[in-house]
Amino acid sequence: VEWLKNDEVIDPVQDRNFYLTIDHNLIIKQARLSDTANYTCVAKNIVARRRSTTATVVVYVNGGWSTWIEWSTCNSRCGRGFQKRTRTCTNPAPLNGGAFCEGQSVQKIACTTMCPVDGGWTEWSKWSPCGTECMHWRRRECTAPAPKTGGKDCQGPVLDSKNCTDGLCMQTAPGSDDAAFYIAVVVAVIVCLAILLVVVMFVYRKNHRDFSSDIRDSAALNGGFQPVSIKTSRQDNSHLLAVQPDLTAAAAMYRGPMYALHDISDKIPMTNSPLLDPLPNLKIKVYNSPCSVTPQAEAGDLASKLSPQLTESLLDNEAQNVKNQSPALQKDPSCSAFGSFNILGGHLIVPNSGVSLLVPAGAIPPGRAYEMYVTVHRKDNMRPPLEGSQTLLSPVVSCGPPGALLTRPVVLSMHHCAEPSSENWLLQLKSLSAQGNWEDVVVLGSETLTTPCYIQLDPQTCHIVTEQLGTYCLVGQSINKSATRRLKLAIFAPVVCNSLEYSIRVYCLDDTQETLKEVIQLERQLGGQLMDEPKTLLFKDSTHNLRLSVHDIPHSLWRSKLLTKYQEVPFCHIWSGCHRKLHCTFTLERFSLVTSELICKLCVRQVEGEGQIFQIQTTLSEDMRPTEGLLVEPDSSATTLMGPNAFRIPFSIRQKICTSLDAPNNRGNDWRLLAHKLSLDSYLNYFATKSSPTGVILDLWEAQNFPDGNLSSLAAALEEMGRHEAVVSLASEIRR
């Protein structure tokens, strides 16, 4: 069977906008103008060839408005006017009979332009008092009115002055100011000449004096040898002195003239080291300026004199220190599982957490083996950022190695705490990219052919069928006030109590095994015991807080130290899901240490919502002893299952079922009906894109029914489909 477009064969490989289903239906993923054509279906075999009636597809385009241009300037220069802006029906333009744009192409708004205002002078101020210059002043401002919106500024002076003594002011002697100026210039010239003379004499003496040095302490030169007093005569122009050092004195490294031999820790003891071999004659050129030695040259000189064995030992110690400082990768076995898998596949299970990774047989390419892992992240910095009414509904889980090549999907399973309902929730799967950003993978109910994974949302577990290993979590956004998330309430108290006070801790957790497991581990470290069986509370998006209170306390023996009748946990702290190990503490005080029994009730409920009541009855002990109230986790030592033992359906029977159901059947009892019978049909197109749709469905069934998968339910589904040969094979396996 093939499809023709204008009598040309359609090849979905070359044009991915076309998709051929198993039933040979032609699907155009997205209508394009180029898809306007005549389409014909041709079916042929050895005997005959048939053509269907030609279907004409016309892709019409409705017109769309372009963006508005900027508003024009106001058409009035002074007073009221209007501005306008326009748009065109060209984004896109209507084609093939498409509708023209609806709405206005021109918009007008009123505008007002301020008229220009010329500036005006205020009245002159009063004359100022008569000054020492025999003048007085008055001023005015250009503020009556001030110039606005382009108006002209005031013309004329701001200040006005006149003589205030009618010419009776005393006049200074003519030429006196000029004489003072000339005197100041002469003094300045004399000072400059004196300074210049001093500088010239200093430079002359520095360039013509003889070399002379009187060394009183030679420690700055010989680094601890015997002091030598050396003085050159003025007539002797020799600058080189030959000094034979005395090696009987203690040797020291030279640190410079300012601190020679001050650091005792830098001294090298007298040994048989090559450092004490006879030294050649030292020629020292002595100047008046002090000598200096750089630490780099000093270190290089010391390294050249150390023995090779000592140098190698120092390098080995340094390498060992670097090695010891390198951080080691820590793996927490309580929230992780690791295993090495090959083509036979297997199962990774994080104990008592509801988190597992199923690797089907054939998922890993032949001849390869992967070190795979699955881990639950407990740190808050690994949680995705949430917006608005979003809430985290599952733990953050990673599986790897990232980027591993898989030939068929794996199934990652993890618990969630939502009461799933498409009418109340908008659920989406998020993944952590290699750049460290959280990205949306799929929104449940909005899957497309390009969706990289399949999500099966059971009442308590989320199964992710994917070929991309990475970090995932389930995030929900409430659509209405009926959206509900499940809380797990657990009450703990100390096993041993030696004081009058007794604290009861009430935890409000997400209803997932991993969260409860983490709290149990914490309470074991704190010495706590579980006071009653944990209970589930349905918490709605009603913005009401969670209220906790203690009742029926025997007041003759105990009293509550809480000043109010109850405690409340804010709604936002619970709904966001970002506060792990959220809890409240009630402190009770007994009047006497003789009192050892406590009986009371603890009520937890959402305001105007559901609630739970716990019956607390315990006997206090002053020493550690075995307590029946301690919560003991079940033995889950098996975290890795490899090969055929990891799967409930034997490989041979699986092959028979896949061979029987993968091929499309006219009666419809193929893999599609199996997915419907097993309630795995939320998005069948995902399975249709796989080489063996039945195999992926059976892998998902294995993950759903782990560890106690009942083959009878699978056999019943196949029996209803009329697949008796598969039922017989499963029945023989059940009888084993």
Automatic annotation (TrEMBL):
GO terms for biological process: axon guidance. It is a single-pass type I membrane protein; Single-pass membrane protein. InterPro entries: DEATH-like_dom_sf (IPR011029), Death_dom (IPR000488), Ig-like_dom (IPR007110), Ig-like_dom_sf (IPR036179), Ig-like_fold (IPR013783), Ig_I-set (IPR013098), TSP1_rpt (IPR000884), TSP1_rpt_sf (IPR036383). It holds the Pfam family I-set. The keyword Metal-binding does not apply. Residues 668-734 form the Death domain. It comes from the Eukaryota. The chain crosses the membrane at residues 179-204. GO terms for molecular function: netrin receptor activity. Receptor for netrin required for axon guidance. Mediates axon repulsion of neuronal growth cones in the developing nervous system upon ligand binding. Belongs to the unc-5 family. This is Netrin receptor UNC5. It comes from Scyliorhinus torazame (Cloudy catshark).
